[in-house]
Amino acid sequence: MRSICVYCGSGAGHAPIHVAAAKELGTAMAKAGLRLIYGGGGTGLMGAVAQAVIDGGGQVTGIIPDFLKRKEMALSDVQEMINVPDMHVRKMEMFHRADAFVALPGGIGTLEELVEQLTWAQLGRHRKPVVIANVGGFWDPLRVLLTHMREEGFIRPELSVKYAVVDHVADIIPTLQKAVADLPDDALTQEQEPVLIGKM
């Protein structure tokens, strides 16, 4: 595992623990020599995790659509900033450059990105590990919803949704490392081409 794509909010949220978690993850990634792949913004949790990686001497790749450069205040300190035309290309670039995915707290965009990766994994389009960072119980409502979907028969046993949930930032990288270690050697490089959900 060489890189992690982190999905998170472009806002900071109300609880200070969320920004603290983003900084802690960024610091841990830099220390572990793991490149951050993220949305390129300099605000909120996005900015916090990226700046922490940079401050720790780590490497960051930001991927941002042209129309969001000003709104999300593209972070100029990153070593690599990739400008893309739209959100679909952004998500594909993030997917291909990452060996694993982490969802910190965030809004609708974060939720969409997380669910998209869960869907692609469910359909066998990739085997890259996905970790939900349940900081302060933020993702508990989603966990309840996924359980409800299983109980109602909409997530069938043969189409299980594969992900790990951790409550503490310190557990994110070890959880991903263990998941990657359990995969075949070519699992991170032989993924199928995902179909973009929602693109007509």
From TrEMBL:
Among its keywords, does the record have Cell inner membrane? no
Which terms does the record give in the GO molecular function aspect? AMP nucleosidase activity
Look up the record and report any one GO term of the cellular component aspect: cytosol
Q: Which InterPro entries match?
A: LOG (IPR005269), LOG_fam (IPR031100)
Q: Which EC numbers does the record give?
A: 3.2.2.n1
Q: Which GO terms describe its biological process?
A: cytokinin biosynthetic process
Reaction(s) catalysed by this chain, per the record, are: AMP + H2O = D-ribose 5-phosphate + adenine
TM segments?
Answer: none
Which of UniProt's keywords are assigned here?
Answer: Cytokinin biosynthesis, Hydrolase
- Would you identify the family this protein belongs to, as annotated? Belongs to the LOG family.
Family matches, as NCBIfam families: Rossman fold protein, TIGR00730 family
What is this protein called in UniProt? Cytokinin riboside 5'-monophosphate phosphoribohydrolase
| Lineage of the species this protein comes from | Bacteria, Pseudomonadati, Pseudomonadota, Alphaproteobacteria, Hyphomicrobiales
